[in-house]
Write a structure and sequence with these properties.
This protein has 418 residues and is an alpha/beta fold. It has 2 domains: 63 residues; 317 residues, NAD(P)-binding Rossmann-like Domain (Rossmann fold, 3-Layer(aba) Sandwich). Helix content is 41%, strand content 11%. Helix 2 packs antiparallel against helix 3, helix 8 packs parallel to helix 10 and helix 10 crosses helix 12. The chain starts with a helix and ends in a 21-residue tail after the last helix. It binds uridine-5'-diphosphate-xylopyranose. Uridine-5'-diphosphate-xylopyranose binds next to helix 8 and strand 8.
Amino acid sequence: MKRIIWVISGLNRRMMKLLVALALIAYIACEYSISIQEHGEMKIEERIDEVRLISGMFILISSFSQKYPPVKFLSEKDRKRILITGGAGFVGSHLTDKLMMDGHEVTVVDNFFTGRKRNVEHWIGHENFELINHDVVEPLYIEVDQIYHLASPASPPNYMYNPIKTLKTNTIGTLNMLGLAKRVGARLLLASTSEVYGDPEVHPQNEEYWGHVNPIGPRACYDEGKRVAETMCYAYMKQEGVEVRVARIFNTFGSRMHMNDGRVVSNFILQALQGEPLTVYGSGSQTRAFQYTTHPLLSFTLSSPFSSNIPDRCCSLSGLYLTVPFSTSLLPPATHTHLVSRSQIQFLPEAQDDPRRRRPDIRKAKMMLGWEPVVPLEEGLNKTIQYFSRELEHQANNQYIPKPKAARQKKGRPRQHN
Ligand SMILES: O=c1ccn([C@@H]2O[C@H](COP(=O)(O)OP(=O)(O)O[C@H]3OC[C@@H](O)[C@H](O)[C@H]3O)[C@@H](O)[C@H]2O)c(=O)[nH]1
């Protein structure tokens, strides 16, 4: 008896369900053979019913025996119901992984414009996970404790593809999520962007800097969309008492970036792997602070749900500081991806309203959250190159050759750089 109790206590919930399903199948099979023995031939309808039941059981069993990444057990008190908008996207899906593995109940909402089911498919069927195909521009009525609001296209070619939709997502979508946060009393974190600084006149940028944005330029749908999204967050906080956090993400790269994302790192890697020239817009002297995808996640979870000692003011939470300028000879992604193939560099006209330099001042984030980037650029790039190589193989098997997306280029004379 003791031995049986010991075996049962060693079984987890999924194994228990598997055993129950097996027992049910055995029972049905038994009944089936007995009824045939007793009544001779069964009616066709009865047989169909039996077959349906048995195949249903098999589906049930295969879903129980599916392997998921390890998930921590959290008590009812500590386990939160978390909504991640844009949770099937490049950054969102990594956040989904982190919060799932931490043991929370995660609902991913995505309209799959730039997000992909593939990014979260490893969680489908897990009892803590739900995937909803929904556009945040429409209201959403669910019960949650926390909201991570990431939904929006983020790469310049993607957000410029349909500027009105980008504006709607960042304005109406954010209003809907704030309305939800207010109704259910949830805390909301808005994933904002370094693009709120536009083409900054102050360098490096800290939380106090208000930015320098062209309100009618091609980037405005995103820059101004995120700026008004931030304004909405603070208005809801002041007027309605909704707890909000705003994190401004700088240039992020890593696995699960879409092949056709169009940002510089994914373009360079794809071009290098395909033996194409690396396209540099303008002189290549523009600078960016690149960070690996795990960095913003850590800052999100540090700033948003669990710690209460974070001030209401925005935190510019990002950035791998690069002292190397974004120049053609030193440009880190370019020089690194050069190692993948001996690609040439092709200079193209500069992108319209392209910020000349951007780098965050992370002192506040470091002081308040104890946060700083840890993955060196080269290591991050290596991981991303490996991911893209695997993706290319996968795409080749599907007879699809991805092409990097081009930016909207400026017409006329190139801008004079200081
Ligand atoms: O193929 C390319 C792509 C881009 N670039 C240049 O590389 C620099 C970086 O461009 P990216 O498209 O990667 O990113 P951007 O800095 O323009 O915008 C990004 O910034 C921060 C994020 O939060 C935003 O979501 C994203 O819009 C720009 O100067 C761009 O003109 C190239 O030289 N070649």
